[in-house]
Structures are given as structure tokens and as C-alpha cells.
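Input (structure):
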């Protein structure tokens, strides 16, 4: 049997309880033994004194019958085993019982009489202070009954001590097991599971004491280890991806271009084809575009090109991006693009790619249909509109301070929104919730936006939709 910490603590506490109970039991037994012995001595002393007074006259006149009667009365006491009456000369006048047997206690007393004048005899109603020894009494009292009582008390004390020790042991073990043993067992199990590689395991311990704090620290350590492991795995994947993206991307882009041209040619040649042929040609073109988009994300992630900055209006940038997006019939596009906005100083191709990606994501977030709102407005460096009202999602980071006014272009959808867990990992490479995709689109968007001196923010509510805001420097 494993000698766990709760058993050790229980054994220690039970040992203390046993020692204290034994000391108290021993003291109580000693006190009871002392009391019983005192009561026996007191009772037999009184009996012996009464017998000595009553034997005064019979001993003087050597009245055997009287002595026998009085001794018989004493022998009727269950403690008395032997009684002997002696005369003045030491001779035995009468004896009863046996001196054999143990254990016994001896009692003795003298028989005295008062004397008057110079003669010996029993003087009744005659003043006088002189006393004379006329005989003696010798008693043996059996201690068997006394020892039986003491043994009964001893057995009672042993039973009580045993019961106290057993009950206290059980109660102490259950209490220590609950307070210390169970939490420690949970921590041990958690360490074993984590050492086996299960970094997602957490200690479920609802306690406010030191063990609860230890469990909390353990869970935070597990989360840190899990995050570090995920980061290492992600970096390893990104390293491999970076090595392959350049060569593989170019090797795949060329055949995809040929396939795209072939589809275009077939659409021209088969202009009068039936609906099934046109439908399948459209599916092929759509998948080719998705593949080219993934390859573009790979190449842009592996190496972000320096932006070719020039002035461009937000309206032109948004309209060109929308023109390159495939919008389903069940999705409505709404734009709010004031013509009075100043121009942007960005790379049109890179920002067009960002907006196209955001609009495509918004459309894909509404498979059952909905509305996509693309709006632009002017904001200052403090994240407020020129009128002074706060603008949602506008950053106030140090990298935007002192750069003048900004233009915010927002893309909002009416989809299901993003979960809080997804929001935390939204811009992590290789994180995606789509069936098709590699999780690099938003990472590329953020890199391109930051390369153009801006920033990208996101706000989402489950069941209501998501809004991405791209804040770019104005000309």
C-alpha cells in the first residue's frame, strides 16, 4: 500500500490522539483505583473499630460464644476472608476463615478497656481515663472484588480509548483526504498527464487555500506551456511554408494561369452551350480563382513587397476591389463612400488585395445571404471623427501618432460573428475556420496594411456580424 501524504498526516494526528487518550485514561484509572482502595480501607477500618469495641467485654470474660457471634457477623462481609481474635497473652481466642489465597490486605486493631482503681475488669459508668490492652483482632480482606472493579474500569477505559482512536482516525483520514489528499492526487495526476504530453489538461480544484492557489498556478503554467508548444509548432510550420512557398507557388501559378485561359477560351467557343456546361465551367473558374488566391497569400506571406505608394481615392480603391469579387445573388452590397474624402497615400494593388480579401471573407461568412456594408470616413490621429465623436475600432497606437489624418475603410457583414476564442487567434498564421483555406489571408492583410503605414482592427458580436476597419494615412 502506497504511504501517501494524507496517510502520513493522519497517522501523525492519530498518534497524538492515542497518546493523549492513553494519558487521560491512565490518569482516570489511577484515580479510580485510588478511590476504590480508599473506600475499602475506610469501610474495613470502621468495621474493625466497631468489632474491637464490641469484643471488649467478651474478651475480658473469655466468652467464646459471644466472640463467635460477633466474628460471624464480620465474616458475613464478602470482603473478609479470615478473622482471628487474640487474648491479652497473645493466645488465640477465636478464628474463622482461612489465611490462604491471594490477593489479600491485612488489618489489625487492639481491644482496649477502661480501668478504675487498681483492679482489672470492665468498669461501667465509672469515670476514668486509663486504658488497658486486653486483646487484639487480626483481619485478612480479599482484594478480588476490588481488582474486579478495577479491571472493569480498565476495560471500560480501553474500550473508550479504542473507540475514540478509531473514530478520530476515520474522521481525521476523511477530513485530511478531502482537504489535502484529493487536491494532491489531482495535482499528481495532472503532472503525469502533462508529462505524457496532454498540455490541455487542467486541475479542477475549487478551493481558496494554498492548494487552490497552487492549482491555479499549475493551470497557468499548463496554459503557458500549451501556448509555447503551439507557437513552436506554428513557427516550424511557417518555416517549412516559407521554404516551399516561393518555388511551389510559382510552379503552381503557371498551370493555373493556363487553366484559367482555357476556361475563358471554352466560354467563348461554347457560348451557346447548355446550362450544365456553363455551370461546370463557372465552378472550374471559381476553384481556379480560389487556388490562385491561396498561392498569392502564400507568396505575399513569405515575402511582403515594398509598397509603391501613390495617391488614390477611397472610392476608386473600393470599387475596383468590389469589381474583382464574386458576389452571390443573395448578398447585398452597400457602399457609403463620400466624394469629399481626401486621397489615400498607399499602394493601390496591395490595398486592393486587402479589401478584396475582406469583402470575400464577409461574403463567405453569410452562406444563407445577407448584406455587406463598405464605408469610408475621415478620422484624426486620436481615433475620432473630425466632429469629435469617437470612431469604433480606430487605434491610438504609437505607430500612428503624429502621422496626420486618416481614412477608415470598414467592411461589415451580417453573419454569425466570431467567437471570443477565434478573436484571440484571428491574426495568427495558419488559423482558419474555413473548409478551404490555409489561414494566411488575414495575416497577409495585416502585413500589407502595416507596410502602407496603417493598421487593421476588428469588432465582432456573435449572432450580429463582424466589422473589419482598415485605417490608412490620408494624402
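Output (sequence):
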Amino acid at each position: 500500500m502506497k504511504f501517501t501524504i494524507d496517510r502520513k498526516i493522519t497517522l501523525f494526528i492519530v498518534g497524538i490522539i492515542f497518546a493523549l487518550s492513553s494519558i487521560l485514561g491512565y490518569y482516570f484509572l489511577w484515580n479510580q483505583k485510588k478511590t476504590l482502595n480508599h473506600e475499602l480501607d475506610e469501610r474495613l477500618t470502621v468495621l474493625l473499630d466497631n468489632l474491637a469495641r464490641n469484643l471488649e467485654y467478651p474478651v475480658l470474660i473469655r466468652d467464646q460464644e459471644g466472640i463467635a457471634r460477633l466474628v460471624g457477623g464480620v465474616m458475613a462481609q464478602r470482603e473478609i476472608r479470615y478473622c482471628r481474635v487474640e487474648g491479652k497473652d497473645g493466645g488465640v481466642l477465636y478464628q474463622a476463615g482461612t489465611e490462604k489465597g491471594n490477593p489479600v490486605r491485612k488489618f489489625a486493631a487492639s481491644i482496649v478497656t477502661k480501668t478504675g482503681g487498681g483492679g482489672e475488669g470492665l468498669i461501667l459508668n465509672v469515670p476514668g481515663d486509663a486504658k488497658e490492652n486486653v486483646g487484639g483482632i487480626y483481619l485478612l480482606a480479599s482484594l478480588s472484588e476490588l481488582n474486579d472493579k478495577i479491571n472493569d474500569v480498565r476495560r471500560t477505559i480501553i474500550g473508550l480509548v479504542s473507540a475514540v482512536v478509531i473514530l478520530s482516525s476515520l474522521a481525521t483520514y476523511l477530513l485530511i483526504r478531502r482537504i489535502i489528499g484529493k487536491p494532491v492526487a489531482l495535482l499528481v495526476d495532472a503532472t503525469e498527464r502533462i508529462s505524457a504530453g496532454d498540455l490541455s489538461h487542467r486541475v479542477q480544484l475549487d478551493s481558496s487555500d494554498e492548494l487552490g492557489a497552487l492549482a491555479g498556478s499549475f493551470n497557468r503554467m499548463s496554459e503557458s506551456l500549451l501556448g509555447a508548444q503551439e507557437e513552436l509548432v506554428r513557427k516550424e510550420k511557417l518555416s517549412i511554408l516559407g521554404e516551399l512557398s516561393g518555388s511551389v507557388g510559382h510552379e503552381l501559378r503557371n498551370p493555373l494561369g493556363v487553366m484559367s485561359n482555357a476556361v475563358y477560351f471554352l466560354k467563348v467557343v461554347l457560348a451557346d452551350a447548355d446550362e450544365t456546361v456553363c455551370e461546370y465551367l463557372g465552378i472550374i473558374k471559381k476553384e481556379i480563382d480560389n487556388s490562385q488566391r491561396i498561392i498569392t497569400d502564400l507568396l505575399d506571406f513569405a515575402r511582403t513587397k515594398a509598397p509603391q505608394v501613390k495617391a488614390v481615392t477611397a472610392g476608386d480603391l473600393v470599387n475596383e476591389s468590389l469589381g474583382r469579387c464574386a458576389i452571390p445573388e443573395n448578398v447585398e452590397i452597400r457602399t457609403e463612400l463620400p466624394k469629399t474624402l481626401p486621397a489615400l497615400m498607399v499602394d493601390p494593388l496591395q490595398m486592393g488585395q486587402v479589401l478584396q480579401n475582406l469583402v470575400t471573407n464577409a461574403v463567405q461568412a453569410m452562406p444563407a445571404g445577407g448584406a455587406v456594408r463598405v464605408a469610408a470616413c475621415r478620422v484624426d490621429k486620436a481615433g475620432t471623427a473630425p466632429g469629435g465623436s469617437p470612431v469604433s475600432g480606430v487605434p491610438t497606437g504609437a505607430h500612428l501618432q503624429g502621422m496626420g489624418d486618416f481614412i477608415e475603410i470598414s467592411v461589415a457583414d451580417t453573419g454569425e460573428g466570431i467567437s471570443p476564442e477565434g478573436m484571440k487567434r484571428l491574426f495568427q498564421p495558419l488559423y482558419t475556420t474555413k473548409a478551404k483555406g490555409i489561414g494566411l489571408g488575414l495575416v497577409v492583410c495585416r502585413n500589407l496594411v502595416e507596410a502602407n503605414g496603417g493598421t487593421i482592427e476588428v469588432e465582432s458580436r456573435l449572432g450580429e456580424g463582424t466589422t473589419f476597419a482598415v485605417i490608412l494615412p490620408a494624402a
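Notes: The CA atoms of residues 417 and 462 lie 4 Å apart. The first helix runs from residue 5 to 54.
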